[in-house]
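Sanity check

After download, print the first record. It should look like this:
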Amino acid sequence: MTIPMKPSDQHCIHGAAALDPAAIGARLLDLPEWQAKGGTITREFTFANYRATIDFVNAVASMAEAQDHHPEMTVGYRRCLLAYTTHSAGGALSENDFICAARADAIYVQGPGA
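Expected structure tokens:
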């Protein structure tokens, strides 16, 4: 029996195809803090202070580079908004967006230095 991998354990693939609405809805069940609108998923993360925010931003940037899938980031004093979409899939959502969203959630829960 094969145990399915959690999205945060998966790796992005080049040329990922756009997901249909049913697949998007199913994947959002695993990411309850994320919201889908159009071809984007977003989540706002909050922090105790600016240093914690920047540590998170840097950890997400490192993960994004490793996955070769980069979010839009809006950074404030104690918050960071991440937005994922897949440009190569025509500005739609792909599996890569959900993989990176799950990885960002894991960074947030474990702390950037974990």
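If your output differs, re-run the checksum step. Summary of this record's structure: The CA atoms of residues 16 and 95 lie 7 Å apart.
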